[in-house]
Design brief:
- By secondary structure, this protein is α/β, with parallel strands linked by helices.
- It contains ten helices and 13 strands.
- The strands form three sheets. Strands 1, 2, 3, 4, 5, 6, 11, 12 and 13 form a nine-stranded mixed β-sheet that branches. Strands 7-8 form a two-stranded antiparallel sheet. Strands 9-10 form a two-stranded antiparallel sheet.
- The chain starts with 9 loop residues before the first strand and ends in a 13-residue tail after the last helix.
């Protein structure tokens, strides 16, 4: 374990909105197993109207609070909270309110970032709270993007979740780290613009990690720290709202982070692939999800203008595999079966 710092260098921030029940259920383990010599646990309350603040004052008096008068949403809520603590903490952890821990999960992440100054973000091993032997969908053991921008993970490819047998128990540079438990260099986070509030939800952490990598920093997954994530608490996978956000935000992410000279070609390919997804929903008589894809593309066409001046210095996904081919044609369901390149 690291030698104690003169003052905590890590802010573990949990964004809360009307989550008194989640605070009572999951915050005790985070407080107990987060080493106080290196970190402070902070709850940023996003204008809750339930008894969250009363619960924090009475049941968690040692937990620092940041109180907002209104709900700023997930991305902007975190941005405001991190700006508020930026002068006091070298690193920040964005931790979901439905995450539980049972041991010191933070020290391995902290030690790795302290000894690797080129690293801008890390995540621990994410396991399922409901099925602790399995990786959790939201980030498993670190994320990647295929050449068309589809995300997948070490331990999760599309809907196939692997059992954790220690097969990914080596630190690895990845392309994105999960927002469920994301440790970042605080100044880098702010310099890269933080989470994009226009995304609203879904893929905002992938977009952030992409921008960090374009800025010359690395993103890693560190298995020595592990947490248990409930996940799926907001929208189920089949919800048309989730379909809409995933398709729209994926297009926005590609538009923002690809070089201007190749982005049109890449987005044209995605339109063709998204048309196939639309046809699949139509064939299954799932008209709501099919309509969500159409709406995602229509709204992307409106929102893209904000990012038209973006021009990335390099295409960071051009050498990556085609996950659709690997998964559906070759039958490669596990990460280890796929020839992945950073």
């Amino acid at each position: 374990m690291s030698a104690p710092a003169t003052s905590p260098r890590v802010a573990v921030i949990i964004l809360n909105w009307n989550g008194a029940k989640l605070l009572r259920e999951y915050l005790p383990s985070v407080v107990e197993h987060t080493p106080r010599e290196i970190a402070d646990v902070i709850v940023a309350d996003n204008g809750s109207t339930d008894d969250s603040l009363e619960v924090l004052r009475n049941e968690f008096p040692t937990v620092r609070r940041i109180e907002f008068d209104e709900n700023h949403g997930f991305a902007e809520g975190y941005n405001l909270a991190i700006r508020a603590i930026a002068d006091d903490y070298r690193y920040t952890v964005l931790l979901n309110s439905d995450v539980a821990v049972d041991s010191d999960w933070l020290t391995p992440l902290y030690d790795f970032m302290e000894s690797h100054p080129q690293v801008g973000a890390v995540q621990p091993k994410l396991l399922s709270l409901m099925k602790p032997a399995e990786f959790e969908y939201a980030g498993a053991m670190g994320g990647f993007l295929d050449r068309n921008g589809y995300p997948y993970c070490r331990g999760r490819v599309f809907d196939t979740l692997e059992t954790d047998h220690g097969q990914y128990d080596t630190p690895m540079e990845v392309q994105w780290a999960s927002g469920a438990a994301l440790m970042v260099d605080t100044r880098l986070y702010l310099a890269c613009g933080g989470l994009d509030k226009d995304f609203f939800a879904h893929m905002e952490e992938i977009d952030l990690c992409w921008r960090m990598r374009l800025a010359g920093r690395e993103v890693w997954a560190i298995p020595d720290g592990h947490v248990y994530h409930l996940g799926g608490g907001s929208l189920p996978a089949s919800n048309p709202r989730k379909t809409y956000l995933n398709f729209r935000n994926n297009l926005l992410m590609l538009h923002k982070n690809l070089p201007a000279k190749i982005r049109g070609r890449k987005l044209f390919s995605r339109r063709l692939l998204d048309t196939l997804a639309w046809a699949k929903f139509m064939a299954a008589f799932d008209f709501k999800n099919a309509s969500a894809i159409v709406k995602a593309h229509r709204d992307f066409a409106k929102m893209r203008k904000k990012y038209d001046r973006c021009d990335a210095p390099a295409d960071l996904i051009k050498d990556n595999p085609n996950i659709l081919v690997e998964y559906y044609l070759k039958g490669h369901k596990r990460f280890a079966e796929i020839n992945c390149k950073k």
